[in-house]
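Q: Convert this sequence to structure tokens.
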Amino acid sequence: MTAPHGEGSVEEPVEQPVEELGSRRRAAARQAASVSLATGVYGVSFGALSVAAGLDLAQTVALSLLMFTGGSQFAFIGVLGAGGSGVAAVATAALLGARNALYGAVLAPLLRARGLRGLAAAHVTIDESTAVAQAQPDAATARAGFWWTGLGVLALWNVFTVVGAVVGDALGDPRRWGLDAAAAAAFLGLVWPRLASRSARLVAAAAAVVALVLTPVAPAGVPVLAAAAVAVLAGWRTPAASPRLGRTA
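A:
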């Protein structure tokens, strides 16, 4: 299958010099490492808050290992910590996790993963791995960036979840260490270079405004989904300018 490519597409080149491909992969590896570290360290916050919400160490580790989508995990423990029911916690987490299914639909033609590899790809299809893959200039490097980031975040997130759960009381409020801002800063570093066109900047600004307006009044996760809907609507109205992951055959 060959997907049409527009602005911001990641193309599968016919042939690349070895030196150029190596340079691109090293750049992708550096991006993957920085995003993995910034996101993984934030697992300290999740571990500490999870234990504070009433979950034990085993339950906290299971959430990070099996659910493995930070927004959904924070939403889950947030509902439980506020006295909500398990059904409400699961529903809220599922609402936030729905975005990963959209990522999977976009990434599937690029990754072409089947069997156990496909299951592994689905598990590490998260905001970070999708962002790094989309930031690459060609499909081969995008695949490498996806796997490096997904596996890197998986490893570090779970390690630091344990750290946070074990020493959370000694850390105090995790937000005072600025861990919540580290992951956002890493994302901004990836996204900023891609806002080169006027249309991309307008879509990003509109999505940011929607998220900021909804944040004080909407449940956790809804502002993110609403902001994503702005981008989806813009892409639907102007399909020629919507980003693709490029050729897959």
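The chain is about 70% helix and 0% strand.
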